[in-house]
Amino acid sequence: MEKKTPLNIGLEILGNLDIVRHNEFRFISPHFGFVHSFAKLESSLVTLDQPYRIKEGRVAIIKQGYARVLINLIEQTFQPDKMLLIVPNSILQLIEVSPDFDMQMVAMDSEFLPIIGKDDFFTHLSQLQKNIILSLTPQESQQFKSYFDLMWNILQESFFRREVIQHLLVSLLYNIEYLANNNQKTQNYQTRQEEIFQRFISLVNTYSKKERNVVFYANKLCLTPRYLNTVVRQASQQTVMDWINQSIILEAKVLLKHSNLLVYQISDELNFPNPSFFCKFFKRITGITPREYQNPE
């Protein structure tokens, strides 16, 4: 059987010349990567409306254009003067991309970051505010552009100056942490309900493959199931089960498109009692069967 595109979009994929045509616009090593221009890569990596799991953490700045994206079920808009921080193992789905869209991006795993005592630094950062997108002032935007320009210039040297890049990244991440903290102090825009909803979505993204009971999530949040349902509905116009089902479908779509697992194996992976139950569930939510999604005519 021909091997499909790997489930995780990781650094090794960007090194594939069948996927990325112009490698002069990117630098790839086992634990770190830099994309100088997403548009100029002419990558065939990502297709609209298909979910992908992002293996390493990502930090990106938007150069021009815009993109509408679902990140772990939540829609975001990427546009100029935005700083993006995407935590490892997030599921990303492009909804719409403008023809002129371009961005710069760094990707790294935890082994590359020389930070003592913060093994999960990306998750730590993402919990500082409601979104993983920071709006930048013109001055802040220029500062981050300078970070990216300096790293790219250093990466053009014949020898990979690993320690220099590592510590520039640490500085970049702590600067993001500073801005995220500062935004929280100056903008009291996250209500108690919004905070609960964000924590709930984070739990769903973590546990939905095994836990599909409202009581489980309510207990995790120290709330009653009824109150959790009320908060989630008010914050999103959807129920707790709506979000759980969407998360399961997202996981199923990733496995159907980007793994070699058969339908019955995916059913087991997602903890359904049997393949028939999984197929009926998938069709009820999406309108098509898993096989039809996996192999459209």
TrEMBL record:
Keywords: DNA-binding, Transcription, Transcription regulation. The keyword Transcription regulation applies. Residues 198-296 form the HTH araC/xylS-type domain. It holds the Pfam family HTH_18. GO terms for molecular function: DNA-binding transcription factor activity; sequence-specific DNA binding. InterPro entries: Homeodomain-like_sf, HTH_AraC. PANTHER family: ARAC-FAMILY TRANSCRIPTIONAL REGULATOR, TRANSCRIPTIONAL REGULATORY PROTEIN. This is AraC family transcriptional regulator. It comes from Bacteroides faecium.
